[in-house]
Design brief:
single chain, alpha/beta, Rossmann fold, 7-stranded mixed β-sheet, 10 helices, 7 strands, 23% strand
Length: 270
């Protein structure tokens, strides 16, 4: 399912994920003057944090509307960063021009992981590094995402499609990136999604989120609007059972921060 990340209000989800951007930028530790690419920048969470460290930042995303949101946020914060349309398999920067790539749940949506890896290898400098995040399978939020997709695809008579690439798995990432000269390490973290209530959370994730918006539009076009209501109610059941808060909403999901560093070039024999 092709998704226009500019539809709906991804801003609300991006605000929820801001703490993860902080973890990623801390792990990447960009130094003043280093060239940083925030791939899948969205509203610019990681780009702004890197710019605040006085790095030279470019944020890349396929959603023009979100790039404009990022530009406004950057200007309002008095920071300096540039933003450009692009995606994992087509990054609009020169070969070897990036010291640090960060991607907060961005490149994991690339349709072709191998093509994205080749493009990352192309743009990263000889001593550069990549820091990205990916959700670990399991947990209530992940269950809702899987249920929503499977229910919508079944209602549309569409095949379920191949399983997503395992960006969270160190061995799989190593197989993807080590041929390009990177060493890979993975560290586990947790993030808690919160909201004043379960209904408030459902509004953000099941109504305003671009994935939900795309699914709803496809179902409505096929005269199956009722299926979306069924998806929301099933999501409500899953999340209510997993809710960690007695008077609001809180559900914790696990993710990894994966770091890929270029291996030092071996000196040529004399």
């Amino acid at each position: 399912m092709s998704v226009d990340w500019g539809v709906g209000r991804y801003e609300d989800t991006a605000a929820q994920l801001a703490p993860v951007a902080g973890v990623v930028v801390e792990a990447a530790a960009p130094r003043p003057g280093e060239r940083v690419l925030d791939l899948g920048t969205g509203t610019g969470n990681a780009a702004l944090l890197a710019a605040a460290r006085h790095a030279s930042v470019i944020g890349v995303d396929p959603a023009a509307r979100l790039l404009e949101v990022a530009r406004v946020r950057t200007a309002d914060a008095g920071l300096d960063a540039t933003f450009a349309l692009g995606e994992g398999a087509a990054i609009p920067v020169d070969d070897g021009s990036i010291d640090v790539v960060v991607s907060v749940f961005g490149v994991i949506f690339a349709p072709d992981a191998a093509a994205a890896a080749s493009e990352l290898a192309r743009v990263v400098a000889p001593d550069g590094r990549i820091v990205l995040t990916a959700w670990l399978p399991g947990g209530a939020v992940g269950e809702v995402v899987r249920m929503s997709r499977q229910t919508a695809m079944a209602a549309l008579g569409a095949p379920p499609g191949p399983p997503p690439f395992a960006w969270h798995d160190r061995a799989t990432l190593a197989e993807l990136l080590e041929p390009h000269g990177f060493d890979v390490s993975v560290e586990r973290h947790e993030h808690t999604f919160t909201a004043p209530s379960l209904d408030a959370y459902l509004e953000v994730q099941m109504v305003d989120h671009p994935l939900a918006s795309a699914s709803r539009a496809m179902l409505e076009a096929q005269g199956k609007a009722g299926v979306q209501a069924e998806i929301v109610e099933r999501a409500r059941e899953i999340l209510a059972e997993a809710n960690e808060s007695s008077d609001a909403f809180a559900v914790t999901s696990s993710y990894v921060v994966a770091t890929a560093r270029r291996r030092p070039a071996r000196p040529r024999p004399r």
